[in-house]
Design goal:
Elements lengths: L1 H8 L4 H19 L3 H30 L8 H11 L8 E5 L4 H12 L3 E6 L7 H13 L3 E4 L5 H10 L4 E4 L13 H21 L5 E7 L23 H20 L3 E6 L2 E2 L8 H10 L3 E6 L7 E2 L2 E2 H14 L16 E6 L5 E2 H12 L4 E6 L14 H7 L7 H16 L3 H4 L7
Parallel strand pairs: 1-2, 1-4, 2-3, 4-5, 5-6, 6-11, 7-10, 8-13
Antiparallel strand pairs: 9-12
Helix pairs in contact: 5-6, 5-11, 7-8, 8-9, 10-12, 12-14
Length: 437
């Protein structure tokens, strides 16, 4: 059958066919244009044809600009189903939002590599360089993970995805991240972290089967908490930024969906996650870029000159925590949008348990980059920052077997190696103005 089709498309002697057709057309042409009157009619006909072709073309161009989405169609659904299909017995089928993000890419890859099915969803917004997100998408594609370009606020898209695939799990990592950017663009936090979350939960509650949900909260919910290390039992009612407030709201919102609809929910409070393919807006990343370019870096200090500190957590440890959360998540108990019984609700700290000060972070970067940083020290502005974070991880250790193993020295070494290979940066030639260590 295949052979016949190919023969139809590619005649055995194409040159001969062309010649025969050309002769026939030539003869017909002479016959048609025998009189000048007929020629005039033909000319008019050709002009009309060209004009209608051009106007059709411009209609297609302008309407495509207003097409509502880049998703849909049979081929698209085929890709979704293929990507969602597990490649191991008992494998999961996971819808992963924020798949082209930093944590999302790493978790997607880990799941795919062990044989789970993963469909990514990401809106590729320009909070930071979208080309980095596209590059992550390409890595995922090369491993068989399809990433849909769309927003978690798109009700129709979510309905289509849940129609196409009976997802067993949703790993919800899409969010407006960044603590200090909330001052500049508060609406984007409400859009993604509140409205988007609710839209996603609505789709999950109505899905059949209801998926189990694991989602990214944040260490920032501890806000101005001074009791260390931060435990999940501590109060989280004094957020210091709108970002933290939207993550805290997310914890309350997911609780109501758990309570009313029986959705199984696991919230993960990530502590300043860093590593290869990371987020350019974060301090370790932007410091690296500036140090290599010989530009100054701004290091904030706390009250009375006290150094700020973070419980920096390496991406591979976070991925293990995410995967263990999916593996231990109980099934949702609802169906047809109604709860059938109590469902699991958990919140875990995923940190490193060893805070490091920001000046110490800078020193490690200087050693790895072999370039001295130009430090501009200023007092921490009142823009949402908190002086320190420190995770108590006993609950995650007990329930998830979570056990972080990468310290900041080892983790930043891997980050710098990736940074130099990805950006092709040669510090010896490009940072001439910087003093070498
Ligand atoms: O753990 C978390 O929950 C949060 O961790 C990070 O937030 P943050 O810890 O503020 O991370 P960075 O923006 O990388 O800042 C790290 C430290 O460097 C300091 N910093 C930042 C930027 C700067 O220019 N100078 C400076 O000294 C900050 O004050 C902070 O102490 C992420 O950006 C948040 O999305 C995440 O939710």
């Amino acid at each position: 059958m295949m052979k016949m089709k190919e023969d139809d498309l590619f005649p055995a002697t194409p040159g001969k066919v062309k010649m025969d057709r050309a002769l026939t057309i030539n003869r017909q042409f002479h016959r048609c244009f025998a009189s000048s009157g007929t020629m005039f009619v033909w000319a008019l006909f050709l002009i009309a044809l060209t004009a209608s072709y051009l106007s059709l073309q411009s209609f297609v161009d302008s309407s495509s600009r207003y097409l509502p989405s880049s998703w849909g169609g049979m081929q698209w659904e085929k890709q979704i189903r293929a990507s969602a299909t597990p490649r191991r017995p008992g494998g999961k089928s996971v819808l992963l939002t924020g798949a082209a993000g930093f944590v999302g890419t790493h978790v997607s890859l880990a799941l795919r590599k062990r044989g789970d099915g993963v469909v990514g969803l990401d809106n590729f917004n320009n909070y930071y360089d979208p080309s980095l997100k596209k590059a992550r998408k390409a890595v995922l594609a090369s491993h068989g993970v399809f990433v849909v370009e769309g927003d978690i606020n798109d009700v129709r898209l979510l309905a289509k995805l849940f129609d196409a695939v009976p997802f067993s799990h949703v790993m919800h990592l899409a969010a407006q991240a960044g603590v200090r950017y909330a001052i500049e663009n508060p609406a984007s936090y409400v859009h993604s972290n509140i409205a988007g979350l609710v839209t996603l939960l609505e789709a999950c509650k109505s899905a059949d089967p209801q998926p189990s949900i694991v989602w990214a909260s944040s260490s920032s919910v501890y806000g101005l908490n001074e009791k260390v290390p931060f435990s999940e039992l501590d109060r989280t009612d004094s957020p210091a930024s709108l970002y933290a407030a939207t993550k805290k709201a997310g914890e309350e919102i997911t609780h109501t969906y758990n309570h009313i609809y029986g959705l199984s929910i696991t919230g993960l409070r990530f502590f300043t996650v860093y590593g290869p393919w990371g987020r350019p807006d974060m301090a370790y990343f932007s410091f690296t870029r500036n140090i290599l370019n010989g530009k100054p870096i701004t290091v904030y200090s706390g009250k009375n000159g006290v150094d700020l500190a973070r419980d920096f957590t390496y991406i591979d440890d976070i991925v293990k925590g995410c995967v263990a959360s999916l593996d231990t998540a109980a099934k949702s108990t609802g169906s047809g949008g109604r709860k059938q019984g109590p469902a699991q609700y958990r919140i875990f700290n995923l940190g490193n348990t060893s805070p490091v000060t920001v000046p110490a972070l800078v020193r490690i970067l200087e050693q790895n980059l072999k370039v001295k940083a130009k430090i501009h020290e200023v007092e921490m502005p009142g823009n949402g920052d908190v002086p320190f974070t420190h995770a108590n991880i006993s609950y995650a250790r007990a329930e998830l077997g979570y056990n972080p193993t990468t310290n900041l020295e080892a983790g930043l070494k891997k980050f710098v190696k990736w940074y130099l290979s990805y950006y092709g940066f040669n510090p010896r030639t490009s940072a001439k103005s910087s003093k070498s260590l």
